[in-house]
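ok so for the tutorial part 2 we go from a plain amino acid sequence to predicted structure tokens. step 1 is just haveing the sequence, like this:
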Amino acid sequence: MTGYLALFGSAFLAATILPFYSEVVLYAMLRDGGDPLALLLVATAGNTLGAVVNWGLGRYLLHFQDRRWFYFKPAQIEKAQHWFQRYGVWTLLLAWLPVGGDPLTFIAGVMRVRLDLFVLLVGLGKGLRYAAVIWLADAVPL
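step 2 — the prediction. this is what the tokens look like for a chain of 142 residues:
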């Protein structure tokens, strides 16, 4: 049970701006005989929940949009939100990328992406990434 909590925690932290690599923990647990499906679900849940924190921080940032120091004007934000909701939301399938994925989840919060759609797209992308890691771990013996 401790290993699964460590995997969840590392996956959660890896989705934030902190430099963490949950794939290493996942790989080690696979090599120790962990159940691949359980590991996939735990890692995906932790990483997706970490991305939800980024989304929440992005949403919270909007509370400051009426401040003088806030860089963007409300009309600019509204226009960007409309465009992102229509075209950019699909980029959330790429939230698993090591470079740019975490900021993308933050931007999704600023762009007011619905949480249910966010969790679906981000969870799908991150789950597929962990499935690929599990497959590669099985295909490449050490």
